[in-house]
Amino acid sequence: MTTVLRASGVRRTYRIGSLLSGRHGIVHAVDGVDLELHSGETLGIVGESGSGKSTLAQLLVGMERPSAGRIELLGESLHTMRGRRLRRARRDIQLVHQDPYTSLDPRMTIGAIVREPLEIHPAVVPRGDRTKVVAELLEMVGLNPDQSERLPHQFSGGQRQRVGIARALALRPKVLVCDEPVSALDVSVQAQIVNLLEQLQRDLGIAYVFIAHDLAVVQHIADRVAVMYFGRFVEEGDSVQVYDQPRHPYTKALLAAAPVPDRSARHRPPEIVLRGEPPSPLDPPSGCHFRTRCWLAEDRCATDDPALVHSDSSAVACHFPLDEPLQGATHAR
């Protein structure tokens, strides 16, 4: 398959300082991430809040510049491009925002919102065809084109997210980065949006980076999954493999904590209670960053930082990876 997006050793650091607290330091929001996304596939990225998922999303679409590393879109380095080349490349990767209530301009009609990218990039669609294309985009995401003159506040959260998806599709991108696209929606609406994204992928061949903290949603949509902790990928692999046989203790803890439809079910993952709180980004632990919360940690974990080691179609960053299948595991796709 064709690689449409690649990140190599990507880092993003921020200098933090406060005159009131007197605390200063450097936060490694994204710390050496490698990823590949192929045409027509979905890479799911999961992790707790603060793990660096949204910062990574902003880096991938060019809203932030990496402190180190390289991001390639369709084989070209995104962050060495300038002028027309950069403008053209940005058409190929678009972002679907988390919050449909704040990501749409309340003063613009939904038709104008979807049309705006076509005005910014006039070469994509001739001026005379844009009204027709906007209507087609609205219909593609399940909205009535006759409502194009309405304002965002006249729509539900799920409908607003459909508008956001239509806007993201206007430039015919090869990649959509979906940053928690359903977390602000009711559960029933979440399923509708996920189903819509899957249908669009089948119809258009588009590739997704799908970021979420809800493991059940990612399990449903992702072909491959990367688990992020403290700015790093600690495990990645085929979706079925990661969900059925997690190898990193953090992945296993996330899956064990995920809600299941029937909590009295005979076969379900045993609950795992992580020790302590996540460490401060200003004062990360030595060695493995997860060791202060890990029930398997040994002396080596305090001194040696585990690398992400690849084997076959999976990878794990752990000195003592797990080998047992997760109890009650169910196949993903």
Automatic annotation (TrEMBL):
Pfam families listed in its UniProt record: ABC_tran, oligo_HPY
CDD domains, per the entry: ABC_NikE_OppD_transporters (cd03257)
Database matches in InterPro entries: AAA+_ATPase (IPR003593), ABC_transp_ATP-bind (IPR050319), ABC_transporter-like_ATP-bd (IPR003439), ABC_transporter-like_CS (IPR017871), Oligopep_ABC_C (IPR013563), P-loop_NTPase (IPR027417)
GO molecular function, one term: ATP hydrolysis activity
One example of a Gene Ontology biological process annotation: transmembrane transport
Keywords assigned: ATP-binding, Nucleotide-binding, Transport
UniProt-listed Gene3D superfamilies: P-loop containing nucleotide triphosphate hydrolases
Domain ABC transporter, chain residue ranges per copy: 5-255
Coiled-coil region: none
Family: Belongs to the ABC transporter superfamily.
Protein name: ATP-binding cassette domain-containing protein
Organism: Kribbella turkmenica
